Amino acid sequence: MNTIPALVLTDxxxxxxxxxxxxxxxxxYSNFTPRGSRLADVDHVVFFGLQxxxxxxxxxRFTETFFAVPKAHAxxxxxxxxxxxxGAGAVPIDHIEQLHDLGYLPLRLKALPExxxxxxxxxxxxxxxxxxxxxxxxxxxxxxxxxxxxxxxxSATIANRYRRVFEAFAARTGAPREFVPWQGHDFSFxxxxxxxxxxMSGAGHLLSFTGTDTIPAIDFxxxxxxxxxxxxxxxxxxPATEHAVMCAGGKETELETYRRLLTKVYPTGIVSVVSDTWxxxxxxxxxxPALRAEILARNGKLVIRPDSGDPVLILVGDPKAPxxxxxxxxxxxxxxxxxxxxxxxxxxxxxxPHIGAIYGDSITLERQEAILRGxxxxxxxxxxxxxxxxxxxxxxxxxxxxxLAMKATFCxxxxxxxxxxxxxxxxxxxxxxxxxxxxxxAADGALRVHFPVTxxxxxxxxxxxxxxxxxxxxxxxxxxxxxxxxVEKELL
Length: 492
Known about the structure:
There is one protein chain. The chain is an alpha/beta fold. The protein has two domains: 6-153 and 397-491, Alpha-Beta Barrel (nicotinate phosphoribosyltransferase), CATH 3.20.140; 155-394, Aldolase class I (TIM Barrel), CATH 3.20.20.70. It has helices at residues 17-20, 50-67, 71-86, 94-102, 137-140, 142-173, 195-205, 215-224, 243-249, 254-265, 280-290, 292-297, 311-316, 326-329, 331-339, 365-377, 391-394, 455-458, 480-491; strands spanning 25-34, 44-46, 107-111, 117-119, 125-129, 184-186, 211-212, 268-274, 299-305, 341-343, 349-351, 355-359, 386-389, 404-413, 416-419, 436-441, 447-453, 466-470, 473-474. Helix 16 (365-377) links the parallel strand 12 and strand 13. The chain is elongated, with a radius of gyration of 27 Å. The mean pLDDT is 97.
């Protein structure tokens, strides 16, 4: 993938828009905006991923696969692709030769700070050409930019929603707030649509949480967002088993597998054990009581991980199950009965610190709320459970989850400035802004988009959309720590 020329990271229909714009077009100005939410109770998008796009694509990919390649080779590769798919000579490529001669991308990107919670219909960033010969380039990069940026924005937004629900229930039940960043654990890697998607999504998750099993998301944040695992907690996890381990230990000797893990392999610290390989309720009602003394004497925590069934019913209990049965009580109540614990300042039960639970199969925002609400109704604090957030959450989304789209709203043709817009009669949700834009913070603290505005207003320091990339150079670099600070501030 890294060797695919940057110039072909677009749609075929984009390749000849240069000639389709009116003769004399010298400027095209576009914006990237979340147009609406398909998720209940989510009306903002957490902006994230543009810096990665700039560094990896606008700088590295364009340099390595185009500007640093001899002009004849770079142009020939582009001509070959178009000629054999659109027809020989169907698209003239003299403009590509001119771009190679220039030696950099004549574009300006202005953006809000990454980590900002951006209301629907408010732009996250704008794009325009800086050289009148390359007005076609603004929307030429739309495809690659959209493909790269919508995903991390979407995952960062959904993770932030999980975080807000955890925060709300921690406040309600008196659970320690410092535990909340560990309550959402990224389990999504294997279910994502490729390695890059896993890295980008996993990084978006880590804006709101520190729990992750997606190792390369940490490398991603170190490479593109100035993080340093030796100086800050980027993401962390714990030793954990899988079904292969438990199966290999043997069904009849499952108790000894637990004992070996707790006393020999991990005599201290946290260890998570998948517990439904055969009979989950037997593990909870027979195995754990048999190991109670060893678990309570151990300097660490055993985390029980169910991995099948309905997560709400497994953790909270099934009201339709027979009275007094393990299924009726649910995991957390059963663990309380075996190990006990303490109560929070608000009177909710918190399990003994030697025992805990994590559930990471098919978790959704709706199930998260149902689990935490169900536990609270039974008198349990929210800190009794960690949820593994997997591809069932992060992969079951599209660009239209938040309607993230790039649209042109301003152009200059033969020296005449034109406010342009789309307003389809058949779908008002697809209406675009018009003209140049600014984003400002209103007196109530909310972000507001203003349009159309004058060139002076668009260029003013009052516009929160500030230049991050211009003529091949990254002008504003954010760090993970700085972005997390923005996210934390907006949680309050």
